[in-house]
Amino acid sequence: MKQIFQLLLPLVIVSTSVFAQEGQQKNEQQAHYNISKFKQLNEELPTPNTQHTASGAPGYEYTQQQVDYKIDIVLDTENHRINGKQTITYHNNSKDSLEYLWVQLDQNVRAANSKGSDRNSSRSRISYSLSSFTKNFMDKPFNGGFKIKALKDTNGNNLKHTINNTMMRIDLPNPLASGKTFIFDIKWWYNINNYKEDKGRSGFEIFEDGTTAYAIAQFYPRLAVYNNVEGWQNMQFWGSSEFALEFGNFEVSITTPKNYILNGTGVIQNPKDVLSKAQYKRYLQAQTNYKKPMFIVTSEEAKTASKEKSNKTKTWKLYAENVRDFAFATSPKYMWDALAVKLNDKTVMAYSLYPEEGKKLWQEHSTKVVANTLQVYSKHTFDYPYPQATSVNVEMGMEYPMICFNFGRGDKNGNFTQRTKKGMIGVVTHEVGHNYFPMIVNSDERQWTWMDEGINSFVQILALYKYDSIMFPMSKYPKNIVGYMKGDQSRLAPIMTQGENTFNFGANAYAKPAAGLFILRQTIMGPKLFDHAFKIYASRWKFKHPTPADFFRTMEDASAMDLDWFWRGWFYTTGNNDIGIKEVKKYHITNKPTKETIKIYERSNISKDNIPPSLFLISEDSEEFTEDLNNKVEDYNLLADYINQNFSSEEKATMKAPKYFYELKFEKPGDLVMPIIVEFEFEDGTKERKQFPAQIWRKNDNEVTKVFPTRKSIKKITIDPDQETADVNLSNNSWPKTSENKFERFKRNQVKS
Amino acid sequence: MKIQLLKNYLFLLLLIPFFSFSVHKYYLSLCEIEYVKEKESIQIIIGFFIDDIELTLNKDHNTSLKIATAQEFEFIDNYFETYLNKHLKVTVNNNLATYNYIGKEQDSDIVRFYLEITDIKVLNTLEIKNTCLIRDFEDQQNIIKINANQKHKTFYLNKKTHKGLLKY
Description:
Number of helices of chain A: 19
CATH class of the largest domain in chain A: Mainly Alpha
Strand content of chain A: 25-35%
Distance between the termini of chain A: 72 Å
Strand order of the largest sheet of chain B: 5-6-2-1-8-9
Strand content of chain B: 35-45%
CATH topology of the largest domain in chain A: Neutral Protease, domain 2
Helix content of chain B: 10-25%
Largest sheet of chain A: 7 strands, mixed
Radius of gyration of chain A: 33 Å
Largest interface: A-B, 54 and 42 residues
Shape of chain A: elongated
CATH architecture of the largest domain in chain A: Orthogonal Bundle
Radius of gyration of chain B: 16 Å
Oligomer: heterodimer
Distance between the termini of chain B: 43 Å
Structural class of chain A: alpha+beta
Number of helices of chain B: 3
Number of strands of chain B: 10
Order of helices and strands of chain B: HEEHHEEEEEEEE
Number of domains of chain A: 4
C-alpha cells in the first residue's frame, strides 16, 4: 500500500504543478546553482595532474629546478657597502626548454627610482617630525638597489639582459634544453640600508659606542622559481609578499674586518682561521654540549673586539647544502652561545649571537628557545634536516635558512619588560619555525603568505605552549581571532588572497589561518587524525614547492575527512561563525494520546481507541500538561509489558528510560558552518556535552532542530562552552538567556570586591 | 616575517608590531562603546598598551609609575581617571557627558578601563573625541567601535582626526 502511494505521489505533485504554472509568472520559485556550503571544492582547486596529484602528493612527473651558487663577498664597513661576485649554475630539471632566466633583484625595491611606493595611495599629514621632513622632502634619496657591474657567461661573453624593477631577465644565447645546465657570472655591489632608519628585512645598525652590526639578506641576485604551476615566478617584490626560491648548494666566502664575528646559512668551513684559539676550542666543545648553552665567544671577548680598530680582514667560508637562500649576520659586538640538540639519531646545533644590549634576556632564553622549536617542529613534521639553527639579535623578526634575525633588548641597564620577554620568545620560535615553512616545505610566499606564515604560526602555538605553558596558554586560541572576524566586512579579505591585496596582513595571513588549523586539530579532526595528516603534508613536500591545493588535498586524503566545507568557509570567504540557541521545548512522556495525536490519526480514519500501543510526548507549555505527569516512565504498564516480553533480564538491567525530551532549535546567523558543541547542565549540577558535526547544517543553513531525551531536568544549556569555534557572538549561546555582557560582568565583580 | 601575538582578541586591532619591516610597533588603542537601552547605560571599555600609557603618564607627571608591577603606585587610578577625563570626551545628545570610572583590568600587556555613562533614556547623537596618546606617538591610531541602537560603527581616529560623530 505504502509503495503504491509513493508511486502515485509524484504524479499528483506533477499534475498540480502543471496547473499552477499556467496562470503564474515563471520565476516565482527561483532555480539556482549548487549553493551548498558543502559543495565540493573542485571549481576552486586546480585540476590535478601528474605533477600535483589529486591526493595532494607530488606526482610522478614532478620536477624542480636546482640552482647552485658560489659567491665571494667583501663587506665594506667604511662605506656600508657590499661587493659581490658570484657564479650561478642553473640546472633545468623541467621538461621544458627555456629561452630566458628570471633573476630577482630584491634590493631594487630600495632603488631611487623604485616603484614600490607608487602603488600606494598617500595622504598629507598635519605634522612631520623634523627628521622625517628632511629625509622625505629635502634629502637626496637613498642610493639603493643593485649596481650590476658585469653579467657574463663562462667564456666571458656579455649576456643580454633587461631589468624590470626587482626582476632581471637574462636572454640565453641558445634555449636551455631540459636536463641541461647553464653557468654564468654576475658582479655587483649595493649600498646597505640602515634598517633602523629605513626599515627593511636586512641592513646595518650603529650602536651607541659607534660599532656596527650587519644583518645581511636578499643581498645577491637570486634565481626566481620556474615550476609547473606558475611558469616563471613573475610577481614583483613590493615589500610585503616575500619570496619564492629554488633549492641548491651554496659556497660562500665573506670578507669582514678582523675583529668581527659572523654566522650564516650553512656551516663555517674554516673555524680555525676565523676564531681565536680559545674560541675554536670552545666551538669544538660545544658540538657535544647538550646540557645548557655555553659561550663560544664570550661577553668579554665581544667587549674587547668592539674596541679594536684594525684595517686587517679575514674571510669566513661557509657551505650549505640543499637550501633555498643564504643570509648572514656579523658584528664585533656579538657574543655567541651554543647548545647541541638531539633529534632522534642526529645532533644539530642551536646557536645565538647577540650584543651586550640583548645579553640579559638572550643568554637566558634565545638558544633554549631555538632548541625547543627544533624539537617540537620535528615532532610535528620531520627531523630538522640542517646541521644548525641560529638566532641573531637584530631589532626585527625575519627568517632565512638556518639563520634568523630576532628582536629583544633591555633598557640601558639591560632590564627588560615582560612584554619584551614574551615577544622575544615568540619571535625566536616563529622565525626558527620558518626553517620548516617555507624554507624546507617551500611554498610560494609571493603568492600565498598564509602557507608559510599561517601554517608556521599554528605550529608556533604548540611550540610556545611546550616552552612555557603559563606564559603561552593554548586556551586563548581560537578566541584571539574573533575580534578580527567580526570586523567590518569592507576591511576583510579571504585568506586565499595574494598578500599585497589584504587589509590586515597580520590577522589575515598569520592569525586567521593559524586559528583555523587550531580548530581543525582540536575540535573538528582531533589531534590524532590531524597530526598524522599534517605530518604527511610536511614530509610529502619537504624540499619541494607545494600549493594550497596540495595542503587541502593532503589533509583530506590522509585523514578520510571531507574538509572541503572548512576550506571553503574559512579560507575562501570572509564569513564568521555565530551559532545560537533559538528555542528550547521541554516534553514529558505520557501513555495517553494527546489531542494532537488523536487528530492526526483521525485524518487517516483511525479512531482514538484503535491507535496502536505507543507513548506520547506532551509539551510542558501545552494546555493538556499537568504536573502529575512527572511519573517514572518505567511505571507505564504498556512499556513495562513490552520490555518484559522482548528483552532478557540481563538486557533489562542496563535499560533506562528517559524522563524528558528536550527539543532544541539552533540558529546560525553566521555564514560559516561549524560543529555544534552543546553542554547540558542538569538540575543536580552534573554536566554532559555533545558535539554534532558541521554537516548538521547541510540541508538547512539557518536553523536545525535536535531532540535530546534525558533522565534529568536541564538547568542550563551552553553552546561552545570552551569557545573553541571562534563564535563571534556569545549573547545567543546560552539558555536561559544571560543578558549580562562583558562590561556588566566586570562591573558586578568590581562591586563585589 | 613575524607578528607578535598577544593574549586577547584586542591584539588583532591593537597590534601588529613586528611583521616584515624591522621593529614596526603599531600604536593603537581600542575603545568599545555599547549603549544598552534597557539599562539606560552607555558602557565604555577602552584598552591601551601598558607601556604606551605608562610612558605618557610618566611624562605628564615626571615620575615612574611602574604600572602592573608590584611597585605600582597606590593611587594610580587617580592618574588614569584624570588622564581619561582629559583625553576621552563623550558627548551624548549634544551634551558633554561625565562617566563613572568603574575600574581597570590588566590583560597581558594591555590595560583596559571600564567607564559608564548612566541615565541615557534615548540616544540621538553620540560624539567621541579621543586624543589619548596622540601627543607622544606620531602614528597613534585610536579605534572606536560603537554598538548602539542596533547599529555597528567603527571610527579610526588619529592625529588628524580626533572626533567621530554618530546621529541616529
